[in-house]
Structures are given as C-alpha cells and as structure tokens.
Amino acid sequence: xxxxxxxMKKDFKLTRTVFLVGLVMNVLIAMLTIYLGTIAENTLLTFxxxxxxxVLHVIYVPIVVFTSLKTEAxxxxxxxxxxxxxxxxxxxxxxxxxxMMVISLLMLYVTTGLLIIPKFNLIETYWTDTRLSGLFIFxxxxxxxxxxxxxxxxxxSLYHWLKFKIxxxxxxxxxxxxxxxxxxxxLFESSNLYRLATNWGGITYNFSSFSIDxxxxxxxxxxxxxxxxxxxxxxxxxIIDNKVEV
Length: 246
Known about the structure:
Shape: globular
Structural class: mainly alpha
Strand content: under 5%
Helix content: over 70%
Order of helices and strands: HHHHHHHHEEH
C-alpha cells in the first residue's frame, strides 16, 4: 500500500501544474459568467461558459495522462525498471487524473449552484431538470474522459514499442491505430449485432423543461464501454511490460 501511495504522490507532482492551471481557469470562467449575468438579458445563456467548461472536462484525464507520460519518457529507463507491473503504474496515472478531474468538476458544480440560487425565481421551472441533467452528465464525462485517457496510454506505448523497430515510420502506425479502430468500431456499432448485444437494461431520461427529446441509454452500452476500457488498458500494460525497450 505504501508503494502505491508513493506512486500516486509522484504522479501528482508530475501533473500538479495542470491541476492548478485548471482550477485557475475555473475561477476565470466563473468570473466571466458573473460578468455575462450583468449584461445578458437571458439568464440561462449566462451559464454557457460554465456548461462548456464542464463538457470540456472529457479531455481532462487525457491531458493529465499525456503530461505524466511525456515526463516519464525523459527518464524511461528508470520508469521501466520500477518493480511494480505496468498495470499499477498506468492505473496510478488514471486514478490521479480522475481525482483531479472530480475535484475540478465539483468546483464548477458548486460555483454553478451558488450563481443559480440568487436567480432561483427566474428559472424555478427549470430547476429540477437542471439538477438532474447535471447528475446525468457527471458520470458520462468521467467515463468518456477515462476512455480517451486509456487510448492516450495505448498510443504512447505503441509509439515507444515501434520507435526502435521502424523508426520515424512508427507515426504512420500510430495514426493508423487511431483511424482504423475508430472506423471498425463505427461499423460494428451501426450493426444489428451491436444493438442485439447492448440494447438491454434501457434507462430513459426525460428533461421536459428543456424542450428536447427523451434521452435513451442502455446498461448494455455501459458494459460494452467498460469491457473495452479494461481490455485496452491491459493490452497497454502488456505492451509496456513485454515490448517497450529503452
């Protein structure tokens, strides 16, 4: 356990600048929202910067992971000789980014709530849907961000595996590793087989105040994404343990 804690501390030190810059940006976005509230006629439109900031958190974990891995690459021989398996080394980076992201998102959510309360009478009819939509968005942003973060890890490991084997041409392979799986996934996810495998455990979200169609999700889709993330993560760990050389 102490080794894991030490690993987390090291990963935090490698990426704390990203975390602190993110918090400062949250404050600036809140200030922008307050300013828009003084000049905009539509109260709801003033919260667009905060909504965009929340949505853009899908790239939070990837940025943290990439920053950490880029630093590790400068002393790769030391990192690869760590006695802990690659799965633990990579999981530490994901968890570190996830903790930072949750703190940043909670900061934005609390800020949004504090700014909404003084205007409660103006948007009372939207309050319930606003709160529920926030709860709906939160776990989905976490999931998407983790998925992209794992992809960053996979591409990084692929790059370092191939750089001594095929030289500069490894970039072509890395780009292909982005395009081809995305194309195959798009084909599969538009197939009847995918719908048969994932369209179970339906959950419907209805935000009538926002004048949008009900949002339909399935437990099968969440399981599919979870299996994909786990599989890609362990493939990445295997490449680092067995293929990446200094």
